[in-house]
Amino acid sequence: MLSADDWGAVWLTLKLASTVTVLLLLLGTPVAWWLARTRSRARSVVGAIVALPLVLPPSVLGFYLLVAMGPNGPLGQLTQWLGLGLLPFTFPGLVIGSLLYSMPFVVQPLQNAFEAIGPRPLEVAATLRASPLDTFFAVVLPLARPGFITAATLGFAHTVGEFGVVMMIGGNIPQQTRVVSVQIYGHVEAIEYAQAHWLSGGMLVISFIALLLLYRFNPSRRTL
């Protein structure tokens, strides 16, 4: 059965995934909207940067984040100057790493949803003298709801299952940075296969339920 450390890792993982999902929806929505609407030449560059974690090894991303947030890195020097200390091996550091690593799983579904709306509903709203902000909240958000469901589900599930980035940035500190994936790795290293089975099975069930709900309530979503 699960020990106190196992349950601590489960709680920390759910806390991390929930925090990251909310922040990604807040930060990723304007990025996705800009990518869907802009004609700027920078669109391809920004899109490539957002999608980079899809092809970049997690250990590489984690390494450069560790350097950037370290005592000699630009982000580390900034946080020290602000009196916040260093971010590596802390929960805020895990949040930042997870935000970058899971960004494409939120931005791309939102971008696709915004592009599928087309210009016609926006033009109709403009003829009714709706402001851009009113148009976005009254027209765009309801029409893009399936995209938001997909983005939230994939962002949450991907954050729950990540290993390389959180291991590089957070290490293995109980109750602080030890998430479920790291806990499973520790059980396997200690040849504690029974505990590893319980945690792995739980992650498998959570992932399956998330995808099942995604396809159940968003049947138009054919590919991830």
Structural class: mainly alpha
Q: Measured on Cα atoms, how large is the radius of gyration? A: 20 Å
| Principal-axes shape call | globular
- Name the helicity range: over 70%
Number of strands: 0
Mean pLDDT comes to 88
Topology overview:
Layout: H1 4-37, H2 43-51, H3 58-69, H4 74-81, H5 91-117, H6 120-127, H7 132-143, H8 145-161, H9 164-170, H10 180-189, H11 193-217
Structure description:
With 224 residues, the protein is mainly alpha-helical. The protein is built from eleven helices and no strands. It has helices spanning 4-37, 43-51, 58-69, 74-81, 91-117, 120-127, 132-143, 145-161, 164-170, 180-189, 193-217. Helix 5 (91-117) runs antiparallel to helix 9 (164-170). The mean pLDDT is 88.
Descriptive tags:
single chain, 224 residues, mainly alpha
Short description:
The protein is mainly α and 224 residues long. The protein is built from 11 helices and no strands.
